[in-house]
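FAQ: What does a ligand-bound record look like?

Like this one, built around nicotinamide-adenine-dinucleotide:
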Amino acid sequence: MSEAEAKQIERMKSLLASQKSAFRAERHRPIDKRKADLDRLADLCRKNADAIADAISQDFGNRARQESVIAELAFVIQDAGHAKKHLGKWMKTRKVGVPLTLAPGSASIRREPKGVVGIVSPWNYPFQLAMAPLVAALAAGCRVMIKPSEYTPATGEIMKSLLAEAFEEDHVTVITGGPAVGEAFTKLKFDHLFYTGSTQVGRLVAMAAADNLVPVTLELGGKSPAIVTPSYPQDAAAKSIGWGKFFNAGQTCVAPDYVLAPNGSEKSLGEAIIKVAQHQFDDSATDDAYTAIVSDRHYERLNGMIEEARTGGAEILQPKHDAEAARAGRKIPPTVVINPPADSRLMTEEIFGPVLPIIGYSELDAATDHVADRDHPLALYVYSTDKTEAERVLDNTMSGGAGVNINLLHLSVPDLPFGGVGASGQGSYHGEHGFLTFTHERSVFRTGKWHPSRLLAPPYGKMYETVAK
Ligand code: NAD
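The answer part, i.e. the structure of the complex:
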């Protein structure tokens, strides 16, 4: 561990202490202040949109500006606006009924902020995946410490300085550093820990949280399949899948990881997807609208996966591109791999890049079995014009979320909980679900001075005999 990292670790311990005492001084942040917090966050995005998009692009080598505007800035601005609009309703104490045997009395659920929460974010949408949980935590009235990914240091630094201008340090703060800092961060005794990243590290985070009995949300990854049925027009499926897969060069947790297509249609679907990519990008190697791979390590890994499939006899499809410029710009052109070997890394690991295997299936049940035999993915997509068929796919599989005839965009519907299940994660957020993630629902039962429950104490009278009837 470097000296700077050791210092960061000391700093975060004292920040946690000061956030905890600030929280105790204001346990129930009033609604007006929470709304102002959300406004400040949205303003910060609006006023610094160019600088934030530049920082993200610097981190990636090239990040399509339009992608940063849509998926990072606009997303957070809308999310904050939605939370502000519904906050009054979300914060309200809920009354619940009281059974006759417990009457008279009133029961209610108070929605209280959990306290000081930690957010660990990944590099693929380095701004949004730190800020969307922040929106939820601010709406819930919490204090927040954020640990962004070390792979996107420029974005980490700009978040740190902009949030320091907009919020007191004992309200919202950013801690930068690598895995050692991340590890120490997840060992802090937060009131909730919110982690987005790989399933591997997620397991370590869950163990660190368990040590302190800190409640934890895990937003992890996995292999999200797209099932194309014969009923769905191939070109329309190709358009949708090509868009979702090549957005951010496939570095999206809910991107279609691989496609299951009816036997015999794999190649024509693959060619249609490559045609879509050709239409979207002049030459992916030189077009700024196509995002680069975040690091040399990730670039080498993806190339290694393609080569392994090629050696294993799979056919590789790519649009025309300038191979030298692609290498220099750390870009992997949109790539389709037809029927890679089942034991290849393309079929056993989350790909997280613009490489799309298409494998054939005989019957729809074989396709759903393929999915059901593996870890539950973060998302599943089905393309079908037949409602019963789509329903059958949903019935026979499980995934964090799902899209019918569409991909990615279920996560933009603010009232849908966003999260995984099993190996793809636990817990969820967005909209009210995010507010609830950082909220403790506290049960309160009130009675007056006199209540018949007193008759349930010794010395027992006749009352207890009626209780079980
Ligand atoms: P990662 O797990 O390598 O890193 C995520 C964060 O964890 C970083 O901030 C990192 O510094 C920190 N970290 C690393 N080692 C740590 C440790 N030992 N203890 C604590 N923290 C540690 O993930 P990544 O490569 O940045 O992101 C890619 C993965 O994230 C993919 O699997 C993707 O599917 C997943 N992801 C999921 C979602 C979702 O919403 N479910 C969104 C985006 C990405």
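Follow-up question: can I read anything off the structure? Yes, for example: The mean pLDDT is 96.
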